[in-house]
Amino acid sequence: MAKTVFFAFRDNPLCFIHVLLNALDMAARGQEGKIVLEGEAVTLVSVMAAPDHFLHQLYTKAKAQGLILGACKACSAKLKVTEAVTKENIPLIGEMAGHPAMADFIDQGYTILTF
Questions:
Q1: I want to staple 82 with a disulfide (CB 3.0 to 4.6 A). Which of 20, 52, 76, 91 is the partner?
Q2: Chain centroid to CA 78
Q3: How far apart are CA 107 and CA 89, in angstroms?
Q4: Mean of the pLDDT values across residues 85-110?
Q5: How many angstroms separate the first and last alpha carbons of the chain?
Q6: pLDDT digits (tens, 9 = 90+) for 37-76
Q7: pTM
Q8: At a CB cut-off of 8 Å and minimum separation 6, what does 83 contact?
Q9: Backbone CA torsion sign across 85, 91, 98, 58
Q10: Angle of CA points 18, 83, 6, to nearest 5°
């Protein structure tokens, strides 16, 4: 089975919609597509959590399916969104100086795609 992890760095909702759509599509096809929020993308969590945001339905669906592995601990702290991320029950991850280590995912057989 193909294993892909999307590392989203940008805080652009029109970019992030493609991360959500592709992860959900992979799950529907029986493939593994997971999401890691890095860099400025961590700020999207509170935005997408708002019920009136256009990404809310896709975000909650991806979250419910366990497709969001976590958000960068260091970037969440630096951008002052740690509380918003933890409120959404998204794990803060950062085994590499506070940031998620891509090497860990490569070791687990994932292909990494960055957005």
A1: 76
A2: 17
A3: 26
A4: 97
A5: 22
A6: 999 999 999 999 999 999 999 999 999 999 999 999 999 9
A7: 0.96
A8: none
A9: negative
A10: 25
Query: What 3 state SS string does 35-99 have?
Result: EEECHHHHHHHHHHHCCCCCCHHHHHHHHHCCCEEEEEHHHHHHCCCHHHHHHCCCCEECCECCE
- How far, CA to CA in Å, does 13 sit from each of 8, 17, 56, 84, 101? 11, 6, 11, 17, 24
CA distance 32 to 99: 22
pLDDT mean across residues, the chain:
97
Q: What is the C-alpha radius of gyration for the chain, rounded to an integer number of angstroms? A: 13
Per the structure block, which two tokens stand in for 75?
């970037």
